[in-house]
Design brief:
With 251 residues, this protein is α+β, with helices and mostly antiparallel strands. It has helices at residues 29-35, 43-52, 135-143, 146-172, 175-187, 203-209, 214-226, 242-246, and strands spanning 6-7, 13-18, 24-28, 55-59, 64-66, 74-88, 94-100, 105-106, 121-134, 195-198, 230-232, 236-239.
């Protein structure tokens, strides 16, 4: 069932849903979108999927941990490997939002959402092991400790800044600058010495993370290679001089 979006008080976008009493209550456009998400598996299927994931779970490369729009009953901690978070539109195009490596928490917001629905699809981009933590249990741990609560707020704040930076990068900058910025972030250095960056997945997936089509990503790499700034292998890219990448014009 599709929901009609409307603008609620204060200009916030809202939609409506029917409750068991027959009354209608406001929900956010965010929730309405997730409930109608093209890859949502439905409440029953979603519940079965996360129940199977309880405890520790090993995921083969490409395996799905959860799908956008499914009921968010668990927070996951990455123990080994890495998880890719992405959204898919009705056009079928995938947008990679984040990569989470060992030690990172995935879907922590499910512990605080009133009606938790996973906001993205989580997929292992390499063989991975995750720990499933019931969302309510995670929330209770946080609320019982001021120290843990401060740490959670710090994580959420850092994540929001990361998303703002990511949004600005993919919406305001050209392909060449997006790719060079991502490479510098992965390299973790601005020195003059060569640094090798391992691609976390196929070039198409990295391009999606930067809001680029596979063709645009490949062209940007080719431009940087022709300028003598990088060397491109199958799954690795060598930055010949990271400092020179930092000096690229933003147009």
């Amino acid at each position: 069932m599709r929901h009609n979006a409307a603008h609620g008080p204060g200009g916030a976008a809202t939609a409506t849903r029917k409750q068991g009493t027959g009354k209608r209550a406001a929900i956010t456009l965010h929730e309405a979108w997730l409930r109608n998400a093209p890859t949502a598996s439905g409440p029953a299927a979603g519940a079965a999927a996360v129940s199977a994931a309880a405890g520790k779970r090993r995921l083969a490369r490409g395996a799905t941990l959860f799908r956008q729009g499914a009921e968010g009953r668990y927070v996951f901690r990455v123990l080994e490997g890495g998880i890719k978070l992405s959204r898919t539109g009705y056009s079928g195009r995938e947008l990679v939002l984040r990569r989470a490596g060992p030690g990172a928490l995935v879907a922590e917001s499910m512990a605080y959402a009133e009606e938790p629905l996973y906001p993205a699809t989580a997929t292992a981009y390499e063989t991975s092991v995750v720990e499933a933590i019931p969302a309510e249990e995670h929330r209770d741990r946080i609320l019982d400790s001021k120290e843990l609560a401060r740490a959670a707020l710090a994580r959420m704040t850092a994540r929001s800044f990361e998303f703002l930076d990511h949004l600005a990068l993919i919406r305001l900058e050209n392909a060449r600058f997006r790719v060079s910025t991502w490479l510098l972030g992965e390299a973790g250095t601005l020195g003059p010495d060569p640094v090798e960056v391992k691609l976390p997945g196929p070039k198409a997936a990295v391009g999606s993370l930067l809001g680029l089509t596979p063709e645009s990503f490949s062209r940007a790499l080719a431009d940087l290679r022709e300028d003598g700034l990088i060397e491109v292998g199958r799954r690795r890219i060598t930055l010949r001089n990271p400092r020179r990448l930092l000096e690229l014009p933003r147009y």
